[in-house]
């Protein structure tokens, strides 16, 4: 009997790596990302965005599709708010550069426009939280109201700083997704993963310690200038742009690693067989939409190819367009993360 | 009702404290210079004025890191403020931010007061922490001159110079058009006239 149990358990034990192996991989990847990001920030940033920006969006889209219910049911208002807000906020964000070029704006007026968009984002998030809290009657999310109001207040005091904080916080959301996913699929790894997360502030602190006194990066060409500006060199002129670009790149690398490697490999079989549309519940269900889902994924795959082509032809312009349009995937993370809580 | 009154009191106290301690306009000696819009405020740092009996020439020593900060601030463009200076320079935005902060503090106060899981002591501690955080954040954000004014550190400069001792205080670095200060560097020390008894 004992041998029968052992035989039954043996293949599982062999196929699933231990938590120690998982921790070792996570720590190794974190340290490696920090080293590369600190060593050659601009060059590694160019290569990283070129290779992984598009694919990570594709994996993210596929992940969101797997989390989408076939029928919205009681969550109808939640998803309606999510999609309408996502569309409107993205459209407004994408139109901002055109608005800026269309007229002459004072610094104060432009800051007010940015603060207004940020406030709309916070209001949308607040609405989603409220709708979600109605479904989670046991959870007390009332403390999020003063928090949201305080964030709105800080946003109006320094809209540029608020926008910059989104640039740095967004990569960390992927780590939150992974945490929620591990709790569902591999609870045994969840505690180990959370311990690994404690390494993250230490690594960032180490990077700040090492790079805070370095001279700023030479941003004498358009591309390097764009990269340093994206990391906040203009908003924080006193901080070395080497430090800013390195820390941002480090977080971006972790973000890409989670979406492209960690979630598909660690997650369920639905995420492992990325090529199989039938593993997506919305496509698999008898009342689902297999053709629509397949079409969306194929179009997204073509978009990744177009993005690579664009990067090859004109990297700087494509990068600008990508990071403007990519606000959609930043926003899309919010409702799906809330659904996992 | 009690909770609402409590929240209003907290807000009222915050508003009074912050408004009373708003950062004053740039202290400029009207007799010495009249800065125009072309004057660029670069950053705030510290300055040590020391005497050296062996030196034959006055020296201005600038740390390498500070020089890089100056360069960064200059490269950044005209009139750009430092980190904290970029916050809430617009009155409209400050009013909206204040209103939202008022709502945030009020709601947080009410939630704390109504929380059944907190005891009276815990509620008091939470309220004090909230109060301290709000006052601290408001002081930093509004660049309130909490504590002694900058001139306080320079008050004993004449006596220190006479004794050959060093004096350290804060200094604002400004870049001024050449025609305003005749191409010379100028160090303006915020010293007030002292009476015979030595008191200000």
What does this structure look like?
The complex is a heterodimer of chains A (341) and B (200). Chain A is 80% helix and 0% strand. With 341 residues, chain A is mostly helical. In chain B, 44% of the residues lie in helices and 10% in strands. In chain B, strands 1-2 form a two-stranded antiparallel sheet. The radius of gyration of chain B is 23 Å and the shape is elongated. The chains are: A mainly alpha (341), B mainly alpha (200).
How many β-strands of chain B, per DSSP? 2
Low-pLDDT stretches of chain B are 15-37, 78-85
C-alpha-based Rg of chain A, rounded: 22 Å
Helix percent of chain B reads: 40-55%
Mean pLDDT of chain B: 67
Elements of chain B, N to C (H/E):
HEHHHHEH
How does the helix and strand content of chain B classify structurally? mainly alpha
Classify the secondary structure makeup of chain A into a structural class.
mainly alpha
| Largest sheet: number of strands, sense, barrel closure of chain B | 2 strands, antiparallel
The oligomeric status of these chains comes to heterodimer
H/E series of chain A: HHHHHHHHHHHHHHHH
User: How many helices of chain B in DSSP terms?
Assistant: 6
Considering the chains and any ligands shown, give keywords for the structure:
heterodimer; A: 341 residues; mainly alpha; globular; B: mainly alpha; two-stranded antiparallel ribbon; 6 helices; elongated
Structure summary:
Chain A is an all-alpha fold. Chain A has helices at 2-15, 19-39, 41-66, 76-102, 107-135, 144-157, 159-185, 187-197, 199-211, 222-230, 241-266, 269-272, 281-284, 290-313, 315-325, 327-339. The model of chain A is unreliable at 1-14 (pLDDT under 50).
Helix-strand blueprint:
The complex is a heterodimer of chains A (341) and B (200).
Chain A: H1 2-15, H2 19-39, H3 41-66, H4 76-102, H5 107-135, H6 144-157, H7 159-185, H8 187-197, H9 199-211, H10 222-230, H11 241-266, H12 269-272, H13 281-284, H14 290-313, H15 315-325, H16 327-339
Helix pairs in contact in A: 2-3, 2-8, 2-9, 2-11, 3-11, 3-14, 3-16, 4-5, 4-16, 5-6, 5-7, 5-16, 6-7, 7-8, 7-11, 9-11, 14-15
Chain B: H1 2-20, E1 40-49, H2 64-75, H3 91-114, H4 120-141, H5 157-163, E2 167-175, H6 178-181
Antiparallel strand pairs in B: 1-2
